[in-house]
Write a structure and sequence with these properties.
Blueprint (H helix, E strand, L loop, with lengths): L1 H23 L11 E7 L3 E5 L6 E6 L8 E4 L6 E4 L6 E5 L6 E6 L5 E7 L5 E6 L10 E5 L6 E6 L12 E6 L5 E5 L10 E5 L6 E5 L14 E6 L5 E5 L12 E4 L6 E3 L13 E6 L9 H31 L1
Antiparallel strand pairs: 1-2, 1-20, 2-3, 4-5, 5-6, 6-7, 8-9, 9-10, 10-11, 12-13, 13-14, 14-15, 16-17, 17-18, 18-19
Length: 326
């Protein structure tokens, strides 16, 4: 009897080991960045929510800054929103996502403008800053923003910036799920460099041209180009278009962009902002998912259990035979 119990104990231990081994093979299905949930956007006048399927915007509330908020990001860990105001404004604000009211956080200190904002997975807020030729040209340097004070720490220029910058006009930045930083440079009377999609080194700020942003027919975005970017949890890269000039009513369209080749498509056929620029995009929550085994992993666990039960059956059968013989 003791001999049988010893074998039974060994069998049960083997079952436990197999189950533990199976569980250790389960992948960690958690992403902190980019985002999911509600897609928010900013126009010069309002905070809005946007349908990622139809491109339609719904007003949350008016913003309270004179120059609007072209830079906009939401911390995936806390849900707090951060925004940089427009031309000639070196301020960082917090948004109330329920009513659109903005609360002043602090000065970036340096007479700069945050034209694009996004959080990295480690919670650091990055910004595209217009430092060299402030006046509507767009971002020319990469920086980080202190989320407690609003103070900016410059990392480096996107291009060469002795007196003027070879890359000037990167209005939008966004991190993908792998931690790669992307940017878009728009065409304007004050920008410099090839318009299109860029990859950005988050350690130095150096930007490398990837592809022009064109539709399937080779036509660039109409109106004022792409001035906001944001990745969704499924890897889709969304963008927002600007209006062609300060008085025009031809911007604010939501688009999707293929990061591999820069090809874009419109989401729906209406402007999310009513015609003004869609200056900022940010999802309201992160991409955290539950650690659920896949079908193949459930199969591994089930097989371990079946093998253990089979071993137990063999032992019990031997025990029965031994008792009959005895």
């Amino acid at each position: 009897m003791k001999h049988i119990m010893k074998k039974l104990s060994i069998s049960l231990s083997a079952i436990a080991l197999l189950l533990v081994f199976g569980l250790t093979l389960l992948p960690l299905q958690v992403q902190a960045v980019p985002g999911g949930g509600t897609l928010y956007g900013t126009s010069p006048d309002e905070l809005i929510t946007i349908s990622p399927i139809r491109g339609v915007g719904t007003v949350v509330g008016p913003n309270t800054a004179e120059r609007g908020f072209p830079g906009f990001a939401i911390d995936p860990a806390t849900g707090l929103s951060f925004a940089g105001c427009g031309t000639g404004c070196d301020e960082i604000w917090n948004f109330n996502l329920n009513n659109g009211m903005a609360t002043f956080l602090g000065l970036m200190n340096g007479g700069v403008v945050a034209s694009g904002l996004d959080f990295r997975a480690d919670g650091i807020l990055f910004a595209s800053l217009n430092m060299v030729s402030e006046g509507g040209s767009g971002g020319d340097h990469l920086a980080t923003i202190n989320t407690q004070t609003g103070v900016a720490t410059v990392i480096g220029p996107f291009g060469n910036c002795p007196d003027t910058c070879t890359l000037d006009g990167i209005e939008a930045i966004a991190f993908d799920a792998q931690g790669n930083l992307w940017g878009s440079l728009r065409t304007s009377a004050f920008s410099s460099g090839a318009p299109g999609l860029y990859s950005i080194n988050p350690n130095t700020g150096a930007a490398t041209f990837v592809a022009p942003i064109l539709d399937g027919g080779g036509v660039p975005p109409p109106r004022g180009g792409v001035v906001s970017l944001q990745f969704a949890c499924n890897g889709t890269l969304y963008g927002g278009t600007a209006r062609s000039n300060g008085d025009a009513n031809d911007g604010g369209f939501l688009v999707t962009i293929n990061p591999d080749n820069g090809i874009f498509s419109f989401v729906g056929g209406v402007s999310a902002t009513g015609g003004s620029s869609l200056g900022g995009l940010a999802f309201g929550s992160d991409c955290t998912t539950t650690n659920v085994p896949t079908l193949s992993e459930w199969g591994l666990i089930t097989m371990a259990g079946i093998l253990g039960l089979f071993s137990l059956f063999i032992l019990l059968r031997k025990r029965t035979r031994a008792e009959i013989v005895g």
